[in-house]
Design a protein that fits this description.
Elements (H helix, E strand, L loop, with lengths): L1 E5 L4 H12 L3 E6 L2 H10 L2 E4 L5 H9 L3 E4 L9 H19 L5 E7 L27 H7 L6 E7 L2 E3 L6 H12 L2 E4 L5 E6 H14 L4 E5 L2 E5 H12 L3 E4 L4 H5 L3 H4 L8 H7 L8 H7 L5
Parallel strand pairs: 1-2, 1-4, 2-3, 4-5, 5-6, 6-10, 7-9, 8-12
Antiparallel strand pairs: 9-11
Helix pairs in contact: 1-7, 3-4, 6-8, 8-12
């Protein structure tokens, strides 16, 4: 397959490009900078210059390939309405291009906001609907295209997609600990976060694009839930800092934007996904990655 990939030079996207190329697929990667374009070309991927706001580029990429993996997101946590609007416009644009083609469209989603007091499962319906909702309601929007002849797939990634080079949530926790001189967990730290190594995540994406049926909801989570207290303790150990409890009312003030997430239970199961894709996560655990020291260089 020739796969159009947004976010191709990002954390999950760059590993997904490697995974696709390693298994004989061709990749057309969206690149918004010269550095990103050069990195993709060096891997042997084709390059399409543009970004999430360039809807014409998104149309060209989707039209000219056998399927689309949409992993890009602005991640503007200070102005979520900007990220939500861009995400919805991108999914709408790509979906319209692919309508009636039976080509795959895999979009990135998450496990936050379900409001259940248990691990989220693949059959839980995402409550985010409409342009002003989380991610612009892109998961539900994408899955609607399954009824319009698109092999639409929603990949709900664990909040911690970890590994060497990670600059996501765990890296933000490390930065917050350095800044305040202590590694904090919110409240008693009993909240749990699902986790997956980035190479396992990339493999799940590739397997889904190759064969998951239209309308599939996939949970890209190898560990169902790691207590946030354990994550904070590992960060403190790695930095040689004390570990303390942060008042939930002061989580954002103390930890920055990551505080609004670290007090949430973001656990998720992936049994259905493993069975559907024959996906067998084998990468290091979050604890192993933290113990390995790559986050503390």
């Amino acid at each position: 397959m020739r796969v159009f990939t947004t976010g191709a030079s990002g954390w999950i996207g760059s590993h997904t490009v490697d995974e696709l190329l390693a298994h004989g697929h061709r990749v057309l990667g969206l690149a918004r900078s010269d550095d990103s374009a050069a990195a993709l070309a060096a891997k042997g991927a084709e390059v399409l210059r543009g970004d999430l706001d360039d809807l014409d580029a998104l149309r060209r990429g989707a039209e000219s390939t056998d399927g689309t993996v949409h992993l890009a997101n602005k991640h503007d946590f200070a102005h979520p309405e900007v990220s939500n609007a861009a995400e919805r416009a991108a999914v709408q644009t790509i979906g319209e291009v692919l309508a009636g083609s039976d080509r795959p469209l895999l979009i990135a989603s998450g496990v936050a906001g379900f409001g259940v007091r248990r691990p989220v499962v693949e059959t839980d319906v995402n409550p985010a609907v409409g342009p002003v909702s989380v991610r612009g309601g892109s998961e539900r929007l994408a899955l609607d295209f399954a009824e319009r002849g698109v092999r639409a797939l929603a990949a709900r990634f664990a909040p911690t997609v970890h590994g060497t080079g990670d600059h996501g949530f765990v890296a933000a926790l490390v930065a917050a600990a350095r800044a305040r001189g202590a590694s904090g967990h919110v409240g008693d730290g009993g909240h749990r976060w699902a986790a997956v190594h980035v190479t396992d995540a990339a493999r799940a994406v590739r397997l889904a694009v190759e064969g998951a049926p239209a309308g599939s909801v996939l949970h890209v989570a190898a560990e169902e839930g790691v207590p946030t207290r354990d994550i904070a303790t590992a960060v403190g150990r790695g930095l040689g800092l004390p570990v303390d409890a942060v008042d939930p009312a002061r989580a954002v003030e103390e930890l920055g934007w990551i505080g609004s997430f670290f007090g949430l239970d973001l656990s998720a199961t992936s049994e259905r996904t493993r069975a559907l894709l024959d996906w067998r996560p084998s990468g290091p655990t979050l604890a192993a990655d933290l113990a390995g020291g790559s986050y503390f260089g």
